[in-house]
From TrEMBL:
It is found in: Cytoplasm, Cytoskeleton. May be involved in the reorganization of actin cytoskeleton mediated by RND1, RND2 and RND3. Promotes RHOA activation mediated by GNA12 and GNA13. Residues 36-87 form the SEP domain. PROSITE patterns: SEP (PS51399). The keyword Nucleus does not apply. One of its GO terms (cellular component) is cytoskeleton. One of its GO terms (molecular function) is ubiquitin binding. This is UBX domain-containing protein 11. Interacts with GNA12, GNA13, RND1, RND2 and RND3. The keyword Cytoplasm applies. It holds the Pfam family SEP. Keywords: Coiled coil, Cytoplasm, Cytoskeleton.
Amino acid sequence: IDFDLILAKVKELNLLAGEGITGIQLRPGGAGLRQPEALPLILYQNGMVMRDQPFRPYQDPATQQCLQDIIDGYFPSELQLHYPDGI
């Protein structure tokens, strides 16, 4: 696993998702500032944890697909179910 490459790609995707950009959230009686929702990703020597999901070993095909999506510069396709309008 090339952790440096994965971290660099995650940083690029974070910028695309609006990291550091404050948005406006409308609410009754006014509006407020809102930061984009964080999506935790923890990389270990033998696997990873994303969001509130259980530990996933790197040998798992779904984990390999997730990492390949990131390396290819895409948000993981498995997130489409949870974020149908994008992340």
